[in-house]
TrEMBL record:
Organism placement in taxonomy: Eukaryota, Viridiplantae, Streptophyta, Embryophyta, Tracheophyta
Organism per entry: Populus trichocarpa (Western balsam poplar)
Name by which UniProt lists this protein: Major facilitator superfamily (MFS) profile domain-containing protein
Cited PANTHER family: SOLUTE CARRIER FAMILY 2, FACILITATED GLUCOSE TRANSPORTER (PTHR23500), SUGAR TRANSPORT PROTEIN 3 (PTHR23500:SF30)
Keyword field: Membrane, Sugar transport, Symport, Transmembrane, Transmembrane helix, Transport
Source species, domain of life: Eukaryota
Coiled coil: none
Transmembrane regions: 21-39, 81-100, 112-131, 137-158, 170-188, 200-222, 285-309, 321-343, 350-372, 384-404, 425-446, 452-472
Family stated for the protein in its record: Belongs to the major facilitator superfamily. Sugar transporter (TC 2.A.1.1) family.
SUPFAM superfamilies xrefs: MFS general substrate transporter
């Protein structure tokens, strides 16, 4: 069962391929790496709003929330220890991503995915069994190692397995999987919060082992990508057979030649992290840093990590706050699915810009309502809390069909093979670094900026939308091994890499 697609690049070359069930099933299994990431994001915000969890591990925060009637609404949850619980995972992920780069290049995408699943599984077990805060945070560190390896390898795996014409849809499946994981976590939190005895948070944390087990066992049976096989071995016949199986056709010689050429260049590069800073790769390096940075300063982690806390800040109860997180999770997952359907038709730039405008408008309105209606004490009355919830859903939808999935898609498809693993490691490292910074500082920023926190992130949305408009070329439908041409045809980047054009033509000849 396969839908045949004849994919012609603008270069004039023919890339034959079918969207086969082999590709679909392989990518679905690999995308479980997104589920573990999303589950952790969703579960963290939920358990940190549960009173039994706070009372056991963060008693000062619990007493401040329950007994201190003088403290501002915006400052009830301001605790460096509490934010350390959230952000410790991302420090570990930041460090792990660089080790993952070497393993992914030397041994392939599959081993990195396997290691990621195994480390996350161990972290889930520790978290569910934790009896003190140190055990809890050590479990978070193992979760971070798992996510670091998975996030480094899975987007590469998806982009390399996908036919060019449907690469956007398949790679956006990673963000869709993150959404599925977060939504599942929100639903579980809503249920476990109602368990009598106050131990429901243990179930929430321990159930992270379920997607981790599926990923770990599934990775054992995953096929390696043709790109990686060629990079790892000189056995081009084996790579050709895999490419024929992946594309569902025997006519793969044109694409195979591109992969062999890219691999021969890759094998001459001993130090990819030194290579990537050269002028030839300047556009890719800028995007590897800018896109994950901008993705984190959209303010999405205000919602992802702390949505239940935020909803409690504006006056909703514990159960209502968790249900509000479920609603935003459903909106985010549905919006990512829409992005999967349209990204290869509308293109990356259009979704980036439209989503940016949508996020900006909703952030300004949320900040305005909170500034006008929420003081330091009490809650928001007159139904304004639910207006805020609707506006946050609009914001989440904007992120989920733009910067959410495209923040992983675009970096994974722009690197040539010789720097691909290093480039993706930089993307993951920058993402985790700024996720850590935002996670570590948000509760303090909420305390000091109050409603102004939404205007702060809104300002960044303006900057990133302008960046996309002026500096990001369109990459849809371009074969991944011929992506260098989009920079030479771009008005700004051509001035930097255009001098390499003649050399490229000579090599092609």
């Amino acid at each position: 069962m396969a839908v045949e697609l004849s994919i012609r690049s603008d270069q004039g070359g023919l890339c034959n391929g079918k969207m086969t069930w082999f590709v679909v099933l392989s990518c679905m299994m690999a995308a479980m790496g997104g589920v573990i990431f999303g589950y952790d994001i969703g579960i963290t915000g939920g358990v940190t709003s549960m009173e039994p969890f706070l009372e056991k591990f963060f008693p000062k925060v619990y007493r401040k929330m329950k007994e201190d009637t003088e403290i501002s609404n915006y400052c009830k949850f301001d605790s460096q220890l509490l934010t350390s619980f959230t952000s410790s995972m991302y420090v570990a992920g930041f460090i792990a991503s660089f080790f993952a780069s070497s393993i992914t290049k030397a041994f392939g995408r599959k081993p990195s995915i396997l290691l990621g699943g195994a480390a996350f599984l161990a972290g889930a077990a520790l978290g569910g069994a934790a009896f003190n805060v140190y055990m809890l945070i050590f479990g978070r560190v193992l979760l971070g190692v798992g996510v670091g390896f998975a996030n480094q390898a899975v987007p590469l795996y998806l982009s390399e397995m996908a036919p060019p014409r449907y690469r956007g849809a398949i790679n956006n499946g990673f963000q869709f999987s993150i959404g599925i994981g977060a939504l599942s976590a929100n639903l579980i939190n809503y249920g476990t919060e109602k368990i009598k005895g106050g131990w429901g948070w243990r179930i929430s944390l321990a159930l992270a082992a379920v997607p981790a087990t599926i990923l770990t066992l599934g990775a054992v049976f995953l096929p390696e990508t043709p790109n990686s096989l060629i990079q790892l071995t000189d056995d081009t016949e084996r790579a050709k057979l895999m490419l024929q199986r992946v594309r569902g056709t025997e006519d793969v010689q044109a694409e195979l030649d591109d992969l062999i050429k890219a691999s021969s260049i890759s094998k001459t590069v001993e130090h990819p992290f030194k290579k990537i800073i050269k002028r030839k790769y300047r556009p890719q390096l800028v995007m590897a840093i800018a896109i994950p940075f901008f993705q984190q300063v959209t303010g999405i982690n205000v919602i992802a990590f702390y949505a239940p806390i935020l909803f409690r800040t504006i006056g909703l109860g514990e159960s209502a706050s968790l249900m509000s997180s479920v609603v935003t999770g459903i909106v985010g997952t549905g919006s990512t699915f829409i992005s999967m359907l349209v990204v290869d038709k509308l293109g990356r730039r259009a979704l980036f810009i439209f989503g940016g405008v949508q996020m900006l408008v909703s952030q300004i309105m949320v900040g305005g309502i909170m500034a006008a209606q929420l003081g330091d004490h009490g809650g928001i009355g007159g139904g304004y809390a639910y207006v805020v919830l609707i506006l946050i859903c609009i914001y989440v939808a904007g992120f989920s069909w733009s910067w959410g999935p495209l923040g992983w898609l675009v970096p994974s498809e722009i690197f040539p093979l010789e720097i691909r693993s290093a480039g993706q490691s930089i993307v993951v490292a920058v993402s985790f670094l700024f996720t850590f910074i935002v996670a570590q500082t948000f509760l303090a920023m909420l305390c000091h900026f109050k409603s102004g926190i939404f205007f702060f992130f809104g300002g960044w949305v303006v900057v990133m939308t302008a960046f996309v408009y002026y500096f990001l070329p369109e990459t849809k439908n371009t074969p991944i091994e011929k992506m260098d041409r989009v920079w030479r045809e771009h008005g700004f980047w051509n001035k930097i890499v255009g001098e390499m054009d003649e050399q490229t033509k000579i090599e092609a000849a």
